[in-house]
């Protein structure tokens, strides 16, 4: 399994590595530390890595707008739009505002949005569910 993590913190990259380790399979992680921009070079780097999943933080600068901007660019990309995106953000909390952000992310095209401070054993089943749903979707869409 290959996962791209678009994040401004190495802590999330470590969390993802631990969660993938729990699953007991080989994995690779592409860590992209990005300001609130997403250009053709980053898009090509991700496409060349061929991830099974992209994990994206919403707060890439001082506002969640930066993460939503990158999510839109991924979902508009001819190279990346089919890759499921999991939003992993400290702003996705159990509150009206957190639920609003989660719903917005899903409306844009994220597979799910979870609270960033999950422990690896909590994140692992989320990854499993998203990847399983993506496999099923691809099987159903095959001619």
Q: What order do the helices and strands come in, and which of them pair?
A:
Elements: E1 2-6, H1 10-22, E2 28-32, H2 40-49, E3 53-56, H3 65-76, E4 85-89, H4 96-108, E5 112-115, H5 120-141
Parallel strand pairs: 1-2, 1-3, 3-4, 4-5
Helix pairs in contact: 1-5
Structural notes for this entry:
Helix content is 49%, strand content 16%. It has 143 residues and is an alpha/beta fold. It has one domain (2-47, 55-138): Response regulator (Rossmann fold), CATH 3.40.50. Strands 2-1-3-4-5 form a 5-stranded parallel beta sheet, sandwiched between helices. Helix 1 (10-22) links the parallel strand 1 and strand 2. Helix 1 packs across helix 5 (120-141).
Task: Name a few traits of the molecule.
five-stranded parallel beta sheet, globular, alpha/beta, Rossmann fold, 143 residues, 5 strands, 5 helices, single chain
Give a quick rundown of the structure:
49% of the residues lie in helices and 16% in strands.
């Amino acid at each position: 399994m290959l996962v791209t993590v678009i994040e401004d913190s190495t802590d999330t990259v470590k969390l993802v590595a631990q969660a993938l380790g729990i699953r007991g399979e080989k994995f690779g992680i592409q860590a992209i530390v990005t300001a609130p921009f997403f250009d053709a070079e980053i898009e090509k780097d991700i496409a060349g890595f061929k991830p099974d999943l992209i994990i994206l933080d919403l707060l890439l600068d001082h506002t969640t707008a930066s993460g939503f901007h990158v999510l839109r660019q991924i979902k508009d990309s001819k190279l990346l739009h089919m890759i499921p995106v999991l939003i992993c953000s400290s702003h996705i909390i159990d509150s009206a505002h957190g639920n609003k952000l989660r719903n917005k992310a899903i409306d844009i095209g994220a597979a799910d949005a979870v609270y960033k401070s999950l422990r690896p054993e909590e994140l692992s089943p989320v990854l499993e569910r998203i990847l399983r749903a993506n496999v099923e979707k691809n099987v159903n869409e095959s001619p």
